Amino acid sequence: MKKYEFTGETKTIGGIVLKRIRALKEFCGVSAGDIGGWIEKESNLSQDGDAMVYGDAMVYGDARVYGNARVYGNAWVYGNAWVYGDAMVYGDARVSGNARVYGDARVYGNAWVYGNAWVYGNAWVYGNARVYGNARVSGDARVYGNARVSGDAMVYGNAWVYGNARVSGNARVYGDAMVYGNAWVYGDARVYGNAWVYGNARVYGNAWVYGGRWKTSPCYIQGSKWSVNVSSPDTVQCGCQGHTWREWHDKYLEISREHDAGDVLEEYIRYFNLLCDMYGHEDCKILDYGKIVFLPSEEAEAALKKREEADNEAKP
Fold this sequence. Notes:
The chain is built from four helices and 35 strands. The protein has helices spanning 245-258, 265-278, 289-293, 297-314; strands spanning 4-13, 16-23, 35-39, 52-53, 58-59, 64-65, 70-71, 76-77, 82-83, 88-89, 94-95, 100-101, 106-107, 112-113, 118-119, 124-125, 130-131, 136-137, 142-143, 148-149, 154-155, 160-161, 166-167, 172-173, 178-179, 184-185, 190-191, 196-197, 202-203, 208-209, 213-214, 220-222, 227-232, 235-238, 241-244. Strand 33 (227-232) and strand 34 (235-238) form a beta hairpin.
């Protein structure tokens, strides 16, 4: 048995004729005879499951609403967009293009999700937020206010992006991170853990920030081989290596050898020492590197070995 029919009432939007629907049976809070929203054709709203379009909501084009999804209020779903699972789209929200909203996701207020963007899991997108391009918002993430998530960016976990914040490119914001105010996160940057990025801060390039509160941009240096950035108040990231200030001081030679960085060691020590001066870690500056780095290779190896032996003897 079908769950809805057309009432015969129509209206035209942009040359597309939409038809009002009416429930034929009781399902999930809808009673037989209840007037629903507007769809262009039956393929827009599945006759199976508990999905429903009601209020002044409109679904048209090749859009699909199915499963237990709800579209209501003044929401529009159109293009090739799909809304399914237990998802809800309501208020004045717009879902269009090839967008997907599913799981327990919510899109509401004046939010727009479009392009190839996906919102899923228990994620909420609301306010005047925009999620577009190939962006993904998932988990328990929240995107709201005037925030924008675009490109191939991903926001997930318990992360919040709001205010006038922008997350774009191939950036990732996740964990319990928060990006807000006028902050931007872009490029291949990662913001995660308990980090807060706000104010006018910018995190970009290959920077990883995973702790602390950043109202201004944490220092980011693009070196000749890897990027270097302050990733939390206690740590510095160089390429894929993240260590505390003290660990870099104590183990820089070991890390350098492990990653075949001898040819750029002086360059990166200078970056590290600069960061030490900038962030109040002068006691961690590497001041003896010239005694080893500039020795001929055989003498450098001997010096390194001697230093390692001394370090081992000092261990309890």
